[in-house]
Amino acid sequence: MPSVGIISCGKHWKNGCPGIGSHVLCFDAISQQHGPLGNLPEATIVSFDYCQACPGDSIPLIAQKMVQQEGVEVVALASCLFMGEPCPYVRETISRIKSSVTCQLLTGTYFEPELASQHTPDAVRVETRPFGLNRYFQAAVKSVASSR
């Protein structure tokens, strides 16, 4: 059962996944076996953190911390880094992560990066709304964020 650490966009962290107001897509990826994260059978999210600010200098450091201190076996860059207004620094950040940690790196959680850019916030909202988990995850994420 691989342990996963997810790194999201700091801008989206406060408002949640683009268009749906929570980080539910990363969790849905595993439970629904959807997207890059869904391809990891029985994966468990053990760490969830966010980029501190552009230009993404904190992401490789967060990945190192996840691997070294939290035992993460797979670092996943959340789909929000590729959706809506995609992170302009993510490509160079990926190569920096690969040179700083020796673990599996996933680009995207719910959507592959090239598909994430095709999903508008409204389309994602309609696609995910039936699951009804938004309030639960908003409360959980706010609780984690306020404990920092």
Provide a descriptive summary of the structure in words.
- The chain has 148 residues and is of the alpha/beta class.
- It has a single domain (3-146), classed as Rossmann fold, CATH 3.40.50.
- 45% of the residues lie in helices and 14% in strands.
- A four-stranded parallel beta sheet has the order 2-1-3-4, with helices on both faces.
- Helix 4 packs parallel to helix 5.
- It is globular and about 35 Å long.
Essential attributes:
alpha/beta; 4 strands; Rossmann fold; 14% strand
Radius of gyration: 14 Å
Helix content: 40-55%
The computed structural class is alpha/beta
Architecture per CATH nomenclature, i.e. the level-2 architecture: 3-Layer(aba) Sandwich
Total separate domains: 1
Write the SSE topology.
Blueprint: E1 3-8, H1 10-15, H2 24-31, H3 35-38, E2 44-50, H4 58-70, E3 74-77, H5 90-100, E4 104-107, H6 113-116, H7 121-128, H8 134-146
Parallel strand pairs: 1-2, 1-3, 3-4
Helix pairs in contact: 4-5
Brief characterization of the structure:
By secondary structure, the protein is of the alpha/beta class. The protein has helices at 10-15, 24-31, 35-38, 58-70, 90-100, 113-116, 121-128, 134-146; strands at residues 3-8, 44-50, 74-77, 104-107. The protein has one domain (3-146): Rossmann fold (3-Layer(aba) Sandwich).
